[in-house]
């Protein structure tokens, strides 16, 4: 179904309908859950328990509200929902549901020690990962009308990587708490998801880098979603660090692969680090040099998530690989993540107030 069909279906909805705004719910809306969750986890790792707990409780509420709105949109406006799902540009945004669920599940395990809720979120995450992965990739493969690379590809495609790695992270965390009955199986699944995410990154980042360097790239093309270039490698670093930590327990196959896991974990961290200066330069070019607006976009949460994930993954990697000289990095990136999180939250609230008619104009 094309975006034209979606616009046609939207026009049929009365402007006064109380659920009108639900039709415009972004597929990437769960990015706020990803961003809030990882900042909470990073704050916990860096001994900021109050901030971690507040963001954890807030994330539970946001997650519930977003699922309610998503189900209303699916039931009341299925054409809009599936139009987005099958679209090259917007479809990958649905991977935020997977990653957000995985991050929230990790919060339950790490912050509250609530293993039953962590397991429940694990089942949700696994189901969402399987459904979104094979639905989206099948749809974009068999559809007859496909966009050119420059129009259909964006950084949001790397959310497929983040989704797989979120399953790896949650599985590795749960493996430490479920006992010997399923410890080996969860570690094996975590290892597989870690590799699958890496596989997807290699495929997708090659196309993205090609688009950067050989196709016309305007400031508008550099959407905040491209920060996932770095975030996808940061969460891969976190997954690898947890696998290294688990290798000393009841997972002998991980121990035998320890040099491989350590090498690739460091490679992922180095890749995520390489992206940071380029993304900062391109952001200055987009907003400061070319004067593009900073109006709220759900994709802005895609800037918060990589910053928070880099803080958490750098902390864990430095711990498991005894790289103490890197300890200065996690606090710096956590403070940056908190600052950007607060700025995006304020712009989100202002936008909601303007849509409700409280503000004089849109933010």
UniProtKB/TrEMBL annotation:
What InterPro entries does UniProt report for this protein, alphabetically? SLAC1/Mae1/Ssu1/TehA, Sulfite_efflux_TDT, Voltage-dep_anion_channel_sf
Task: Give a yes or no for keyword Nucleotidyltransferase in this entry.
Answer: no
Q: Which keywords label this protein?
A: Cell membrane, Membrane, Transmembrane, Transmembrane helix, Transport
- Family note: Belongs to the tellurite-resistance/dicarboxylate transporter (TDT) family.
Q: Where is this region: Disordered?
A: 1-20
Native organism is Nitrosococcus watsoni (strain C-113)
The keyword NAD belongs to this UniProt entry's keyword annotation? no
- In Swiss-Prot or TrEMBL terms, this protein is called C4-dicarboxylate transporter/malic acid transport protein
Span-the-membrane segments of this chain are 28-47, 54-74, 94-112, 119-137, 157-175, 187-212, 224-244, 275-296, 303-326, 332-354
- Which ranges of the sequence are coiled-coil? none
Recorded hits in Gene3D superfamilies, A to Z, give:
Voltage-dependent anion channel
Q: Name the Gene Ontology molecular function terms of this record.
A: sulfite transmembrane transporter activity
Q: What coarse category fits the chief subcellular location reported for this protein?
A: membrane
- CDD domains hit by this protein: TDT_like_1
Compositionally skewed regions (Polar residues) per UniProt: 1-15
Topological category with respect to the lipid bilayer: Multi-pass membrane protein
Tell where it localizes.
Answer: Cell membrane
